[in-house]
Structures are given as structure tokens and as C-alpha cells.
Amino acid sequence: MTTTTGSTRHPTDAASPDPRRWWALATVATAQLMIGIDMTIMNIALPSVQRSLELSDPARQWVITIFALGYGGPLLLGGRLSDLIGRRHSLMIGLTGFALASALGGAATGPAMLLTSRALQGIFGALLTPSVLATLAATFPAPAERGKAFGIYGTVMGSSSGLGVVLGGVLNNYLDWRWCLYVHLPIALVAGVGVLYAVRPAPRATGVRVDIAGVLLVTTGLMALVFGFARAESDSWGAASTVGSLTVGVLALAAFVWVQRRVAGPLLPLRVVLDRRRGGSYLAVLSLAMGMFAALFFLTFYLQNVLGYSPVRAGLAFLPLTAGLMVGVRVVSRLLMRVPVRLLLSPGLLTIAAGLVLLGLLRVDSGYWLHVLPVFVLVGLGAGWVLVTANSTATFGAGADTAVAGATVMTSQQIGASLGTALLSTIAGTAAAGHLHAHPTSAAQAAVHGFNVASFGAAAFLCVAALAVFLITGSKNAQR
């Protein structure tokens, strides 16, 4: 692996500090807050959505998965388009499109309309996020202010998870699940006004090309993988639909790498991924997302369907996740420029793994304070620790690759989330069905057994990932 990337900056990046830079931070943090809220608000609303639109158990995960696919698949393209049309324009198009897609979802009359809106939310979010990270990187090039800015950004993103679940509970309980989508409209309006005021136009990058072949291959590959994992629960692992989808996914991604090595303007320049610090960050975020989002998916149904919590109470029960995440963000933001990357990423992953082990020990009659609360705290603490480190590391010194380097972090997160939710839900469903067949018991006990098996598997994976990240970023030349 290489250890450096190009350091060429856009002309505006080298200018004197923007007097409106803190307003710009507030603006882009608000824009990304909208995305962060959406990632958790629908988890709380999902049981109500399932009843309202008569979704089957295998189909319900697609409300989450199709957003992650729509978001994660085109993120790399979003990074390139941000360079092509300018960060300011990308922010405005992304905000407007996301708001309109949210309105469409709120008015959904059936599963097809809802899933279409969720996919569109993801696509416009994929245009928005790379511009958010590129704006932050360009606005705060100085290391001292950069650490503070990413710390504030991480705190906002950390609070988005708690805000999402609480809003989801309140809106779902006192209004309707549809307001979990309508709520994005005022946030988009505020952020749009902020963009017009605080984010100054930057010259468009010259010589930017859109790698159409790369876009098609990476999107096809990722969607095929997630579809294959999702179909395994209903069709079995040996079914032609499952094996065929997984095979197509692997081949398409292999072809994507081959194309990226040969085209003049690659969608993902391999120098970005082959940098040891960035490569370790991407693997850490992918692994984090696989475990974290599956845990949130399981706990949503555990709290509401097993423990009988109302949506509001379930939302409030998620708050320790936010508290843990914010503590992790505050601590790591102070260490970011002084501690080697490997000593930040690997401990964060192990902390999440510890939370997943505790999740694997849950029983039908487990109490919240002794058994569920520690899971939230550990998962949140580890997530905050990893995400701030990865976002800052990915864009640090990336120069002309800043937008695509930041987009790759979010791509890793969303693909991890979609793959984790699909794969671990399949493992949980298969284990639950097998347990129910071998040990006639209640559906709740079988479901919890499935959650246990999937959680232990996710914990083991995160431990292996923590070791891999430590080794990848372990070279002295890979440190700051």
C-alpha cells in the first residue's frame, strides 16, 4: 500500500480563513443532520409502517436497506459530481431533492411508493454528503481548527441518532409514521438558506470526467450483493436467486476494480483506497456499520415487540446510544492529531464488539437498565470513536481527491449498513426458524434466539476487523 496522496488543493482551499466558516459548519452539519435523523427515525417507525402498509417480515428490512443502497451506491459518483458542478450547487440540489423525496414517502399509499421514495432519498443524499465533507475540509485546512470543526460535526452527527429515535417515537405515537418523513422538509429549508448565506461558490475542478462504466459496475455489484443476502432468508442460501445474485455482485465489483486501474478519470482513484490510513479507516467504518445498524435494527424490534415498549418509550430508550456516541466524539476529537490512527480505530471497533456480545446475551425477560442500557452505551461510544477518526483521516491531505475520499467513508458506512442489516437479519431469521422447529416455544423466544446468534457473529467479525485495521494502519509511515 502507498502512504500518501496528492496534496493539490482547489484555489479556494489555499485562501485566507473564510469569516463565515463557522456558519458554513453549522449549515453543512444541519444538512447532514437531516441524513443522520433519517437513518434512525425510520427504525422506530418501522413496526407501524409494516402494519400500515402490510409489509411482510422479509420485506420490512427493505425500507432500511433500499435507502442504504440508494445512498451508498452513488456516493462515489456524488463525490465526482461535487467536483464537476461545484460544492454549493451539489448541496442545494441534494437538499431540494431529499426534501421532495421525503414528501413523496410521507404520502405513500403502498409499499412500492414508499420504497421508491426511500431510494430517491438515498440518491439525493449521495449527492449531498460528499459536498458536506468537502466543504468542511476546504473551509478548515488548519489542523487546530480542523480538529475542532470535525469534533463539532461529529457531535451533531452523534446527536442525530438520538434525535431521530426520539422524534420517531413522538411523531409516530402522537401523529403518524408519515411525519417521520415530513419532518425533513423544514430541516432542508433551514439548511438551504444557510448554504446560500455561508457557503461561498468555489471554482469547479477542471478535467473532471464521469466514469460511467465505474458507476454502473459498482452500483450493480453492491445492489446484487445486498439482494443476495436479503433473499437468503426466504429462498435459502443454496437457491439460484441467492447464489446468482452473490456471484454477480462479486464479479461486478472485481470488474470495477479492473476498470478503475485503467480509465483516465476513475470514479474511485485507487490511490485513495491504497493509502494505509484511509484504507484502514474505510474498513473500520464498513465493519462498524455492519454491527451497529444490525444492532439498532434488532433492538428496535426487541424493545417494541418483545418488551412491549411504545414508540415514544422505545425512542427514549435509545438516548444512551447518543450519550455514548457524544462522549466518544468529545474524547477522540482531543486526541485526533496526537494519537496514531490505529490506536483510535481498533479500540473503537472492540468497544462495539463488546456491546454486541452483551446483545447476544439478551433474553426475553431481560431488563432494560442491566441488560439493554450497556449495549447502547458501548455501541455509541465505539461508533463516536471510529466515525470522527475516519472522517477526519479520510479527508486529511487529500487535496483534489477530498470529495471522493470523504464520499468513500460514507459509502463504506452505507454499504456496511445495508450488508449488515441484510446478512445479519437473514442469520437471525434462519436461527429463529431453526430454534422454533427444534424447540417448540414462543415466537418471541425464537426471535430473541435469532438476535443472539446474529449478534455473536457480528461481534466476532468486529474483533477480526479490529485486528486487520490495526495491522493495515500499523506501519510507522502510515501515521500522521
UniProtKB/TrEMBL annotation:
The keyword Transmembrane helix appears for this protein: yes
Keyword Membrane: yes
Annotated TM spans: 22-42, 62-79, 91-113, 119-140, 152-175, 181-199, 211-230, 236-259, 280-302, 314-332, 344-362, 368-388, 419-438, 450-472
GO MF annotations, alphabetized: transmembrane transporter activity
Primary localisation category: membrane
GO cellular component: plasma membrane
Recorded topology in the membrane: Multi-pass membrane protein
Protein name per UniProt: MFS transporter
Source organism per UniProt: Nonomuraea zeae
